[in-house]
Amino acid sequence: MEPIWFLNKALGIMSADQIAEIAPLIREVLGAPSKVTLCATFEVTGNSDAWAQVTATAINIAYPSEQEPQERLAALLSSSTCTGISDWEPMKFVTLTYGPDRPQAIARLIDGLLSELFQLNDYSVDASIEEL
Fold this sequence. Notes:
- This protein has five helices and six strands; from the N terminus they run H-H-E-E-E-H-H-E-E-H-E.
- The protein is α+β, with helices and mostly antiparallel strands.
- It has one domain: Yope Regulator, Chain: A, CATH 3.30.1460.
- The N and C termini lie far apart (44 Å).
- The N terminus is likely disordered.
C-alpha cells in the first residue's frame, strides 16, 4: 500500500499551495535577461535538510538517499522536461538539467521531488533569489 503522502500527491491534493509558492520565483529566474544568471533557493520551513536550487537550466536538490537517482526518481523524471542527471552525491545532492518549460511545470517537478525525497505532504517553503 502506498503511503498517504504519495496518494495525496498522485491525486493532486495539497500540491497547489506549494506550487503557488514556488512558481513565482521560477518565473523570475526564467525571465531574467540573458546576461543575468539567477538562482532561486527553496528550503522547506522547519527542515533545513530539504532544499532545492533552481537556475534557468538546472535543479540542484538535497538527496537523502544512497540509491541511484535514475532509479529512485524514474517516474518523476520521465514525466518532466528533465534532460538528465549531471551530478549527484549519495546522501547530499542531485543536480538535474531540464529543457524549456513553463514555471508551473518546473514548480510541479520541484514539489514532486521534495515530496518524494522527504515524504512531505502539506509543507511551506522559505524562498530567496540571488544573482550568481
